[in-house]
Amino acid sequence: MAETGSKTRVTLRDIATEVGVHPSTVSRVLNPKTRGMVTDEIAQKIDAAVEKLGYRPNAFAQSLRTNKSFTVGVLVPDLTNAAFTPIIKGIDSVMEEAGYSVLVANTDNVTDRERRNVEKFRERHVDGLVIATAHRQDPLIDDCRAEGTPFVCAVRSTTDIGVSSVVSDENLGGAMIVSHLAQLGHTRIAYVGGPQFLSTGYERYQGIVQGLHDKGLDLDDELVTFGEAFTEEEGRRAANKLLATRKKFTALVAANDLMALGCYDELAAAGLKCPEDISVVGFDDMPFAGKFNPPLTTIQTPLLDVGAEAARILLDQIDNPDTPARSIKLRPELIVRDSTGGVAG
Amino acid sequence: MAETGSKTRVTLRDIATEVGVHPSTVSRVLNPKTRGMVTDEIAQKIDAAVEKLGYRPNAFAQSLRTNKSFTVGVLVPDLTNAAFTPIIKGIDSVMEEAGYSVLVANTDNVTDRERRNVEKFRERHVDGLVIATAHRQDPLIDDCRAEGTPFVCAVRSTTDIGVSSVVSDENLGGAMIVSHLAQLGHTRIAYVGGPQFLSTGYERYQGIVQGLHDKGLDLDDELVTFGEAFTEEEGRRAANKLLATRKKFTALVAANDLMALGCYDELAAAGLKCPEDISVVGFDDMPFAGKFNPPLTTIQTPLLDVGAEAARILLDQIDNPDTPARSIKLRPELIVRDSTGGVAG
DNA sequence: TCGATCTATGCAAACGATTGCAGAGCCTCT
DNA sequence: AGAGGCTCTGCAATCGTTTGCATAGATCGA
Question: Which of B80, B105, B147 is closest, CB to CB, to A287?
Answer without folding.
Answer: B80
